[in-house]
Each structure stands twice: as C-alpha cells, then as structure tokens.
Amino acid sequence: MTKQALIIGGAGYIGSHVCLELLSQGWGITLLDDLSSGLKENLFPQARFVEGDLLNRPLLTQLLAEGFDLVVYLAARKAASESMLKPELYCRQNLGGGLQLFEAMAQSPSKTLLFSSTAAVYGDPQYLPLDESHPTLPVNYYGFTKLCLEQNLQWFARLKGLRYVTLRYFNAAGYDPAGRVTGLERNPANLIPVVMEVAQGLRPELLIFGNDFPTHDGTGERDFIHVSDLAHAHSLAAEHLLAGKPSLTLNLGTGLPHTVKEVVAMAERVTGKRVAHQVVPRQAGHPASVWADARLANQLLGWKPVHSSLELILTHTWRAYQAPAAKADHAPWEPI
Q: Which of 57, 56, 23 is nearest to 238 (CA)?
C-alpha cells in the first residue's frame, strides 16, 4: 500500500521541494496550503491539493482523520526582522497554527510529524559549529516561536503519543537541479534570492549589513544548504520514523560557512553580471558567524548534502530566475 503524507505549506519554496522528493520516493501526497505565500506554479499534478488555512480547525480535523502515515509541517512565517516588528503575526500563524496542529494530531490517527524548525532557536553562538546541544536562547521572536513549538511538541510526544523529527534548518537556498520547481519566492528576504534579483536588474543594489565583523573579509558568514539536500533529509527522517525509531532533533547544514562578499563574488562569476551593493550599518541581533555541526543527521539518518557547494546553489538559483523573470519586492535580506 502506498504511504501517504500530508504536507502543510506544500506549495511554498521548501514545501514544493519536499513534495517533489517524497513523490520521487513513491509517497502519495496531499498538500494543504492557503497560497498566501505558496504558489500554484509549485503544485505537482501527482499530488492532491487542498486549498485552506491551517487555522481552519474543521478542515484540519477532517484531513487528519484520513490517517496519514506522515504529516510535514512547513507553514510558518520566517523573517526574523519582521517578527520583531509584527510579533502578533508570528504569534497567530506560527504559535497558533503549530499548537492547533499538535492538538488536532493528538485527537486523530495521524501521529507522525516532521517539524520544520530553524537555527534561529540557538541565538548568539556560544561556540561554533553549532550542535544540537548548544543552548537555545533565541534573539528574535521568530526563533522564539519555533523553540516554543519544539518544546510543546516534546510534551505532546510524551503525553499524547506523537512521534516526530524536528529539523533545524540553517540557510536554505538553491532550486531543484532538474528545474522542476518553477515558482519563485514572493517578497524574498534572504541573501541569495536578493542577489539574484540584483543580477537580473530587478533591484538596484544589495545592502550589506556591516563589514566590520570578525570574519576574514569583515562581512557576516552563514551556512547555506541546498534545498534539495534539505528535502532529501525529510525523506530519510520519514523512513526513520516509519521504522519505529525514536523521535529526534537534528541540524541540517553543511558546516562550511560563506561570507556575504563570497556569495556576491560567486554570484558574479555564475551569472556573468555585476551585483551592485553598498555597505550599511549592522542590524541588531545578527551574529557574525553561524554554521552547523550536522554530524548527528549523518550518523542517525545517513544524510549527507551533495548539492550544497556555493557554486551549485547559485547556478541552480540563477537558472530558476532566468525563466520566467520575477518581479522584485524591495525588501532587505535576512541573514538567517
């Protein structure tokens, strides 16, 4: 019998790649997405699509009653700076949506969950690379919402029998190497999509927030993980849970950070375009360096990133941005 997965937020950037990965592994897929940030272009005909809001409890209850082998929770707001300006949005969608999902799953036959979390739960690094034992002291409200949900999920697992793998993403980037995901993110706020828009002429320039960090070139450095490698980790985590193995919390990153200037230089090489930029003051709450120790994912899942060189990430992203061209929404990028 075909394994069945419900992907909440499956029309989004990461969700569409996870959908593609699970389809390739023979899963039957149902997508729930309200299309507030997800795109119809990212829907695959092999997957059943249900348009709706995670906060619609009757709809969620109806879906979960089908008894999915796996639920993948990817629907959340994710911009750290926005979360500090509009915490009410993150409270409602991230905390409200996540807690409603846990409660509904506890009352349904669908008890197995992959939870999308973030390196933002760690806050300012006390040591590097960041492993899963690093203290969790988020410095923005977005990271707090994810940490709060992680903690609630642990209680629901203990009290209501949920089983889970929590995946702490570092900086997801890139596009499907075969070009099967065509919808570009709306209002991108992360470094690499903004760099692509500048290279395309859709933005006048990139703002680099600070060049006086204690890094080799003065700009902040981050751990970029190819979204297809990220998606593959989801399929491995699903098999881990289906085999009856214990719940886990895992980092997903490469352990090989790159600075903003390195990203710009590689983007210019890949695209053949100049990436205009200017340095502006640092933003509060953004550490100089963040990168992952992801050895646990390798040890427990057998996961290893294969597409995550900076050159491949930028090559695949540039290809996606070439056809079709996207309209820019001029927003500052988020380091994490």
A: 23
Is this model's pTM higher than 0.85 or not? yes
Cβ neighbour number for residue 311 with a 10 Å cutoff: 11
Q: Running DSSP on this structure, what letter comes out for residue 281?
A: P
Is 90 annotated as catalytic? no
Number of compact structural domains in the chain: 1
Say if 147 falls within a structural domain.
yes
CATH value at residue 243: 3.40.50.720
Note whether 190 and 333 are within 8 A (CB): yes
The residue segments making up the domain with residue 83 are 4-173+224-252
Look at residue 28 and tell me if it is in a domain: yes
Q: Are 177 and 316 in contact (CB under 8 A)?
A: yes
Count CB-CB contacts under 10 A for residue 46. 12
Distance CA(227)–CA(81), nearest Å, equals 22
- Whether 248 shows a pLDDT value over 60: the answer reads yes
311: amino acid identity, one letter: E
Q: What is the pLDDT of residues 257-270, one digit of tens each?
A: 999 999 999 999 99
The answer as to whether 232 is a domain residue is yes
**Nearest CA among 67, 56, 59 for reference residue 4:** 67
Catalytic residue, from 13, 73, 90, 142: name it: 142
- Backbone φ, ψ for residue 183 (5° rounding): -80, 130
Q: Which of 30, 179, 53, 166 is nearest to 104 (CA)?
A: 53
Convert 315-326 to b/e letters by CB count within 10 Å (16 or more is b).
bbbbebbeeeeb
Closest C-alpha to 122, from 291, 312, 276, 332: 291
Number of H helices, E strands in the chain: 11, 14
> Is 191 a domain residue?
no
Q: What is the pLDDT of residues 68-88, one digit of tens each?
A: 999 999 999 988 888 999 999
